[in-house]
Amino acid sequence: MDARNFTFLFYGFLAAWLIVILYVISLARRGARLKKELEDVKQLVSSNQAGHTAPVEDRVR
Amino acid sequence: MLRERTAVGLAIAAGALLVYNLYQMFMVLPDEALQGAIYRILFFHVPAGIVGMIGYFVALTFSLLYLSSGNLRWDSLSASIVEVSLVFSLVNIVTGSIWARNQWGIWWTWDYRLTSALVCILIFAGYLMMRRAIEEPIQRARLSSALCIFGCVDVVIVWKSIEWFRNNHPGPVLSIRTGGGTMDPAMERILWLNFLAILLIGISLVLVRTRQETMAREIDSLRRFANAV
Amino acid sequence: MRTLSQALAVARKDLAVEIRTKESTNAAGAFALAILVLFSFAFDPSADMLRQMAGGLLWLVFAFAGALVFNRGFAKELPNECLDALLASPLSSASLLLGKAFANVVLLLALEIVSLILFGVLYDVNWTACPWSLAAVFFLASWGIAIIGAAFGALTVNLRLRELMLPVILYPLLVPLLIAAIELTDALLFEKRITGTELLWGRILLAFDIVFTALAMALAETILVN
User: How far apart are the C-alpha atoms of B174 and C74, rounded to whole Å?
Assistant: First the structure.
């Protein structure tokens, strides 16, 4: 088999897989960030709700 | 949960198919008469291009579904499919460029097919850029759907130009285009099997991305709720 | 017919405003002149080179200057909530969009005529050999650019970085139309005749106009509704 052709074939395969792998990595990082953000916002909402369940008499006085 | 398991399952199936295809490509199929070893790039170049193009039109369908139903789930699907299709179109163009450097001695030529592939990438990259510029989910869905429709109609016009003008990109070789086929049937078989593998990878990526879009919407609505109370 | 009369009313209003303020035309005109002059420094404009590049140069000038016009099209309705008033009026979205496109095409054609005269003088090109064919090509191509410019101007009016987003989404979509216009313009400026290939480009131009006008009218409600 022609050696030069093989080098280019390797580069071609490398390029194709690199693009897909880089995209998968970016997806994974975005997913982790979104999961963390979702947990944070859920905590924020539940702490907001806890703050507002104090008895009305306490707040009025 | 089911979606995650489906995505993983599809990825594993794609991986197994890819291993089989790679074995066939390197161990079973002979070198091509004129090109030598480099022709094997075709097995990723062509399927990636086809999956990308199909993806844009599937995204069009979901955009139309969103416009008729108003369900943001369709918009999430549409955007995810466009993003994944863009990745595969990029693979198509880069592998084609490397092949061209080896076979024609140039990285790029402005023939109509290459130009149309690049234009499609620019159209849908613009689509993704526009989505990032809009924060309100319903406005984003509405305008993205409109742009997707414009984009896909333009893709057809750009695409068809190859049928009408001479160019130096290799002509159709797949049997569905030529009727009888100018490609060896064994090679064509592996090409279609690789198309299936790449399609499965694409679907699993879309499922993951759509889940992320759903999460983003959930975060957005929870933030609005938190600000409201 | 009602859509058409409403659209003409919108176009009349826009053109009256433009004649009074000359906002877009001044900017677009100055930009076009700048590119025409700068081009002479970028390339040595010999007769041979001009044969190859005239159509491309002209249509790039029109496309870039046109973006300045389209950006202002809907953006000038934003102050004092004029756009909301227009959308709340009995005017249909399709007629509003069509009216903006009519105004765009008139402004674009005015820009093109001035640019063509300047181009002929600065680069010694005789464009009067086939005036009617050239006019037809200019009109068809300008309509295509104008209708998509109006639709995308409406699409991007409320976005941040509007001036950046409009060219980014506009130009890739215009590629088939620009190629057709460039090929036809080159043929008319230098070959002075239309062969079979050019006629095909002419058909692409016409098809592009019809398809995207229909699409813009159909999607006007989607793009413009609040």
Answer: 47
CA distances from B227 to A51, B72, B114, B224 (A): 14, 22, 49, 5
Q: pTM for this structure?
A: 0.88
C-alpha dist (Å) from residue C77 to B7, B222, C25, C157, C222: 47, 34, 17, 9, 18
- Nearest CB to B150; choose among C161, C173, C175: C173
Instruction: Please give the pLDDT value at position A1.
Output: 47
Q: Of B50, B59, B49, B48, whose CA–CA distance to B151 is shortest?
A: B59
* Integer Cα distance of B108 and B133 in angstroms: 32
Most B CBs within 10 Å, among C175, C198, C211, C213, to test the B interface: C175
Q: Report domain extents, chain B.
A: 40-166
Would you state the pLDDT for residue A61?
43
Please state the ipTM of this predicted complex: 0.89
How far, in Å, CA of B52 to CA of B135, rounded? Answer: 27
**Closest Cα in chain C to B164:** C200
pLDDT at residue C71 in the model? 87
Average model confidence (pLDDT) for chain B? 85
pLDDT of residue C162: 84
**B122-136, B160-174, B208-222: segment of lowest average pLDDT:** B160-174
Q: How far is CA B174 from CA B171, C70, C71, in A?
A: 9, 43, 45
Residues of chain A with Cβ-Cβ distance to B94 below 8 Å are: 15-16, 19
Pick from B139, B147, B153: which is nearest to C211 by CB?
B153
| Mean predicted confidence (pLDDT) in C15-22 | 91
Residues C139-154 pLDDT 10s: 999 999 999 999 999 9
Chain CA centroid to CA C214, Å: 17
Which C residues in the span 67-106 are in contact with B, Cβ-Cβ below 8 Å? none
pLDDT on residue B163: 54
Q: What is the pLDDT of residues C167-207, one digit of tens each?
A: 999 999 998 899 889 888 988 887 766 677 778 888 889 99
Residue-range definition of the domain harbouring residue C62: 2-224
Lookup result for tokens 């108003």: B70
Total domains present in chain C = 1
In contact, B181 and A3? CB cutoff 8 Å: no
Contacts of B130 in chain C (CB under 8 A): 155-156, 159, 165, 168-169
Rounded CA separation B96/B104 (Å):
11
